[in-house]
Design brief:
The complex is a heterodimer of chains A (about 260) and B (about 230). Chain A has about 260 residues and is mainly alpha-helical. Chain A is built from seven helices and no strands. Chain B has one domain. Chain B is built from nine helices and no strands. The chains are: A mainly alpha (about 260), B mainly alpha (about 230).
Chain lengths: ~260, ~230
Amino acid sequence: MTWSSSPSPSSHSITLYSVTLELEKDMHTSHTDRMGLILIALTTIAILTALGMVFLYAPREATMGDIQRIFYFHVASAWVGFFGFFVTFLAGIVYLARAERRWDILALSSVEIGLTFITMAVVTGSLWARPVWGTYWTWEPRLTISAIQLLLYVSYIMLRGAIENPEQKARFAAVYGIVAFVTVPLSWFAIRWWRTIHPDILTGGEGMALVPKMVHTLLVSIGAFTLLYVTLLRLRIRLEQAADALAHLHARLEQERYG
Amino acid sequence: MTSEWAGFCRKVGAIVYKDLVAEWHTREMISAMLVFSVLALLIFSFALDLRGDMARAAAPGVLWATIAFAGTLGLSRSLTREQQAGCMDGLLLAPVDRSAIFFGKAIGNLAFISIVELVLLPLFAALFDAPLLQGDILVITALGTLGYTAVGTLLAAIAVNTRAREVMLPILLLPLVVPVLIAAVQATGNLIEGGTWAEIGGWVRLLVVYDLVIIAVSVLTFDYVV
C-alpha cells in the first residue's frame, strides 16, 4: 500500500490507529447489531418452514409429480427479483428528487439482490421445463419476461461500472432504473400477445390448478423469500456504507500525510 | 402562452436545423447507417438462406433487426458529435429549456433514421418480394421508430458520458425496445400476409402507448443526463 513508503512511520501509525478507531465507530457494525440478528433468525426459521412445507405439506402434483415442487421457490424468486427492481425504480425517483447518497445505495443494493433472484428464477424455470416439457427453454411469457429483466439489469450494472464520477453514476443509474422498469409491463404485454398468436404447443394451457395446500405453501415461500430479501438488503446497504466510510477515511489519511 | 409555445417550437426547430445542416455537410450518420443496413441485409440473407416464401416470412424480422442495429450507430454518432465539438456545453449554456434540447435531438435523429428506412423499405420489398410499400406499414414503421428514437436519444446522452460509449448504447438500448420490436414485427408481418387494420389493432395500441410513456419518461429524465 501507499502508507508503507511513509517517511515517519511512528506518526503515521498513530494516524492509522486513530482512523481505525474511527472506522469502527463509523461503521456501527458492533457486536450488538440486535436488529440484524433478529432478522437473520427470522429468515432462517421462515426458509426452513417454507422448505418443510414444500416437501412435506404440499401435495404431490398429479401430472408433473415431485418436479412441480420447484415451482414454490421458482415463483418466490421471480417475485423477489421483480420486487427488488421495483424498489430500485422508487429509489431512483427519490434520488433524482433529493440527490442523497443513501437512495443510490438503496437502488444499487436492491438491484444486485433482484438480479440474483431473477437469475434463480430463470435457472429454476429451465430446470423445471426440462423434465416437464422436454426442453430447457420455452418462450413461456413469464420465463421470457424474467430473462428480459435479467438482461435489463445486467445492463444497469454494466452502466454503473462504466462511469467514474460517483454523482454522475448515481444520476444515470437512477434514470436507467426508471426507464427500464416502465418498459417491463409493456414487454410483458407484448410477449403475452406474441405467445397467444403463436401458441406454445409444449406449454399448452395456462398451467395447473392449485389446491388450497399448494396456495398456502406458495404464500409461505413468497413470505420467506421476501424476508430473505429484506435481510440481504440490510446487509448490502451496510456493506456499501462501510465502503463509503472506508473511502472517506482513506481520503483523510492521504490528506493528513501529504496535505 | 401561445407565444411561449411558438418560442419553444422555434428553439426545437433551431436545434433540428443545426443537426440537419451538419449532417448535410458530412453525411456521416446516414451513410454509415445505410451501408451497415445493406451489409446486415446481406449477412441475414446468407445466414438464413432467404429465398421465396421463407424470405417473405422473415422480411419483417430482418427489417426490424436491421433498423434496431443500424439505429444504434446513428444515435451514438449524433450525441458523440455534440460531445466532441463541445457543442453540448454550448447548448446547455444557451437559454433554452432542456426539454427543447431533447426534442431537438430526438426529432433530428428521427429524421435521419426515417430517411434510412425510406431507402430500406423499397430495397427490402424488392429483395424479399414482400409488399412493404403500403401506407399501413409506413404508419407502423413510423410508430415503432418514434418510440425507438425517443428512448435511444435519452440513452445515447447517457452512453456518451461513459467509458466505453459506443459499446454501451446497444447494451442499454436493446433490452428496452423489446416491446417495439415484437409489436412492429408482428404488425408488419400480419400486413404483409394481407391482414387488416382491425387485426393489428392491439399491436398499434401497444406501440402508441409505448411511444407516449417513453416520450413522457424521457422528457422528465433528460434534465438529469445532460
